[in-house]
Each structure stands twice: as structure tokens, then as C-alpha cells.
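Re: weekly structure request thread

Next one in the queue (397 aa):
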Amino acid sequence: MNDSKDSYNTLTYNRFTKEVLQCARTPFYCYDLGLLHATVLEIKRQTAGMNCIVHYALKANENKRIISEIARMGLGADLVSGGEIQAAIDAGYNPQDMSYSGVGKTDWEIRLGLELELGCFNVESSAELEVINQIAGEMGRQARIAIRVNPDIDAHTHRYITTGTADNKFGITLDMLPQVVRQAIDLPHIQLLGLHFHIGSQITAMRPYQMLCDTVNQLIDEYENEGIRFEQINVGGGLGINYEQPDEQPIPNFEQYFGTFRKGLKLRPYQRLHFELGRAIVGQCGTLITRVTYVKESRAKRFVILDAGMNDLVRPALYGACHKIQNLSAPDDLPMARCDVVGPVCESSDVFAQDYPLPITRRGNLIAIRSAGAYGESMASSYNMRPLPQAVFFNHL
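Done, posted below.
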């Protein structure tokens, strides 16, 4: 266990100042920049002495203030669209420290990446490799690429967020890898830098990462014996956070995570290791603040109806994600009652939690939905023509 609690005093959310809670119309996202900074500093501390670079996965949270703060602290960027490429440039990331992933890169996105001379394209298919080579040739450029390998490792997460098994759309299977490696070497406008892996998201056990290390080591040995050297090894990200008890672990166990790769990988001196972390960096620093609109009693249920809906935070509706929910207005000594916490959107799936224990809750109470910094604001929509949630920031440190 790391000692992150020594450098960050965990936040009890009923300590929010009135200024923070009243500065925006609910619902809104509230971000603790102090926790964000402490998290990035812990990453840098745990990777000190490693020949590596950590890329922030913008898809987790694309808020301009958030991505600019992370860029200022020196991380690279992991991108999955042309829009994210431009956002990263605008936020001050170094193009050389950017990796561009995704199974469906369009021609204009590839051209943008080549114009900016991005550090690496993570290539997902033989067809994509051909298109990148063609466009690079037309532009008189050389495309730096890594081949994304699907290692067929089950990370035992939700089926919607696992990415490294043979049934997933991502990457190139191990049996097809030799053919694609040879293709990349032979294409005139391609510079093959290395191999890229990403096995899933919200991974909290280290066993899948240990298995990934074994696969990477085997591939490095096999190709080195053939005279092929990969100077770049990208192991992706996917490290999970503690949704149930965010105050107990506001910063993930980066010591265990990076230590698994430090111990398990047998990299050569000429190889640089790349990580792509998203949720683990921003997940705990964000909270969705919402207000109780109604408390509805039925014969079998008690519903707490919020002014936030699935359009503001879609994770529970999309794949049954669980977030800690707190009543910020209720005194600590109120009795608890079980309820379904729901939103106003005209969908039966607009539910944040079922049979959830909360202090006796009334109309107008402020509710905090915790650990919403990742895949909250970035996935928000205007469904039902509802306005997008605002964002406010504070620094607890």
C-alpha cells in the first residue's frame, strides 16, 4: 500500500464550503484540483527511475481545465479521435508525447496526426496499416507506429469495458501478429516502433497485468531472435479505483501497479515503457453534485428523484456501475432509509442506485455522487434537450 494518505487528507464532502456548493446551478461537476495534483505527483514518484512515460487518456475526462492541469504537470496524452488530438494540442501537450489509438481512425484524423508528427499511431488492423502508409506517402511523411496486440487475456471486468480477449474488436490477435509485423517492416512509409497492449478497464487485481508481462516478455524474446527490435512497449492502462469507499483510497495503489511491471517485465536497455492511464488519474477528483427534486412513495418503493439524470452520468445506466452516494444536507444523526435514487430522464434505466441506504432525504437536499471524475462529464449528453452540466473547481490542499 502506498502512503498517499500522508500527502492528502481525505475529503469529507459535507465539508464543502457554501461558496462551492452554491456557485453553480445543479447538477454540476465539482473537481478537487488538489487531489488531481496529488495523484499525478504520486504517479511521478512511483515511476521515478523507470525508463517510461505515462500518457493521460483524455477519453476519461476531456474538461479543458483538467487536461491543461495534467499537461502542465508533464504527462503525455493518449488519444482516440481527431477532436482529442486537437484538444491535447490546445492544452499544451507535446505532440511527441502523444499516442493515437482507436479501431476506426478516419483519413482526416490520420492526416492531422501526421501533420503534427505525433509520437505514435497505435495500429489496430492490417487494413489500417495500409491506409496510414498510403496517406503518409501522399504527404511525404513517415508514420511512427506501434502494433496493438490482442493478447487474449480476460481482465474479469464488465464485458463492455474489457478489451483484450479474442472476442473484442480491438487489436491484432497473436496468430496474425507475425504477418502484420512483416507488413509494417515492408511498407515504405511506416516506421515500426513497437508493440501496444490494453486489456481492459477498472482492473483492480494485479494477476491480469502479471499475465500481460509474461506475454510481452515472450514476444520480445521471439522477435529479438528474428532480429526485430521493438524500442517501444506500451502496456496501456486500465487500473481501477475504489468506487465503494473513495475516502479510504483517494489515490490508487500506484506502487503495486507500477511495481508489477517493474518486476514482471524484462525490458532491454534500448526499450522505453509506455503507460496509458485515465480513470486512475481523474476518477476520484470529480463529484456530481445534484439536488433532490421530489421524494416519491409508492406501495413497494421509495424514490429519491434527482435533478441529475443518466444524461449527466451514464455509467450506472450503461453498465450497472456503482457510485457512493451521500446526502450533503442531512445531519449525521438522522436515521437511514433505503430508496431508489433516480433521475428525471424519460427512460426506465435512468437509475443511479437501487435499494440504497441514505439518511432521511427531503426535497431540496444536496446529493453528492462520488468518484465521477472519469467517464462522467466526458460522456454527458443533452438527451431530452437537457443542458450539459457545468464544472466548478476547488483545491482542498
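Residues 33-283 form a domain with the TIM Barrel fold (CATH 3.20.20.10). Confidence is low (pLDDT under 50) at residues 1-15, 157-166.
Next request, please.
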